[in-house]
Amino acid sequence: MNLMKLVIGKPLGFCFGVKRAIDELERALGRYGEVYALGSPIHNEEEVKRLISMGLKLIEKVECLPPNAVVFIRAHGTTPEIFDMVRKKGSIVIDGTCPSVKNAQEKARLLSKEGYNVVVVGDPKHPEVQSIKGHALGEVYVVTSPKDVEAFPAKDKIGVVSQTTQEEGMLLAIVSALVPKSRELRVYNTICKATLHRQETVKKLASETEGVIVIGGHNSTNTAKLVEVAKKEGCDVLWIAKSDEIDEDWLKNKSIIGIAAGASTPDWLINDVISSLSCR
Ligand code: SF4
């Protein structure tokens, strides 16, 4: 008999941006049979394997594209230069850029056009941050913590945008650190609502349960943020990408467990974890 109670967080799994992108990609695969993606279309290995089995081809550079290929731009978006390069190859472009990412890209461009020194709060290596950076004109600074701001030169005008999956507390801390650095500071909070809702869900689960299982790719930033948020709440967290990563020792002595999932985790993986736990 299973004495463990599961509390399923809501919302859970795919956000509207990822769902929209995957739907478009599946339609393109159905229509053209073979579609190229520049980098992984979603930070979830299991879902990528499923898409590869449908005809998706992963490449890292535009130079590797064959002529007249069908190219999918992932939800994280890309830079205007890459768009141009892809079009010059005669490719058909399927643009899966999430509207919330487009908003952050447009705000970065607007700020730079209006003479602000643009600061992007986020992970400098993340493709979304690179795509936002690529839309601004001139120099762009990427900061990950208030510490990065200490060495920041004072500027007349500083404009801030955020990676869409950033934690709100971190954006606030960085903005506070920037106040003494500038006479004019304009901030666009470009954290997307899907991210905020999932972080709030995790906080609630952390307070209501003895531990939270967060399901999501180990390369997924939004999943990592959920794990971070749960830990900050003092919660015992288990981060798994799929059901065979469930740790029996972690489950021991827990009678109520919360289930959360990153915005790039497909329903079929979440359901698999829930059924596996329900059978214990
Ligand atoms: S997490 Fe937000 S910004 Fe990222 S794809 Fe989903 S909806 Fe778009």
From TrEMBL:
EC number: 1.17.7.4
Binding site for [4Fe-4S] cluster: 15, 98, 192
GO molecular function, one term: 4-hydroxy-3-methylbut-2-enyl diphosphate reductase activity
Binding site for (2E)-4-hydroxy-3-methylbut-2-enyl diphosphate: 43, 76, 126, 164, 220, 222, 264
Domain of life, per lineage: Bacteria
Single GO BP term: dimethylallyl diphosphate biosynthetic process
Residues annotated for dimethylallyl diphosphate binding in this entry: 43, 76, 126, 220, 222, 264
Cofactor note: Binds 1 [4Fe-4S] cluster per subunit.
Keywords: 4Fe-4S, Iron, Iron-sulfur, Isoprene biosynthesis, Metal-binding, Oxidoreductase
Reaction(s) this enzyme catalyzes, per UniProt: isopentenyl diphosphate + 2 oxidized [2Fe-2S]-[ferredoxin] + H2O = (2E)-4-hydroxy-3-methylbut-2-enyl diphosphate + 2 reduced [2Fe-2S]-[ferredoxin] + 2 H(+); dimethylallyl diphosphate + 2 oxidized [2Fe-2S]-[ferredoxin] + H2O = (2E)-4-hydroxy-3-methylbut-2-enyl diphosphate + 2 reduced [2Fe-2S]-[ferredoxin] + 2 H(+)
Pfam family, one: LYTB
Cross-referenced InterPro entries: LytB/IspH
Role noted for this protein: Catalyzes the conversion of 1-hydroxy-2-methyl-2-(E)-butenyl 4-diphosphate (HMBPP) into a mixture of isopentenyl diphosphate (IPP) and dimethylallyl diphosphate (DMAPP). Acts in the terminal step of the DOXP/MEP pathway for isoprenoid precursor biosynthesis.
HAMAP family tied to this protein: IspH
Similarity section: Belongs to the IspH family.
Alphabetical list of PANTHER family matching this protein: 4-HYDROXY-3-METHYLBUT-2-ENYL DIPHOSPHATE REDUCTASE
Name this protein carries in UniProt: 4-hydroxy-3-methylbut-2-enyl diphosphate reductase
Organism, as annotated: Acetomicrobium mobile (strain ATCC BAA-54 / DSM 13181 / JCM 12221 / NGA)
Gene, per the UniProt record: ispH
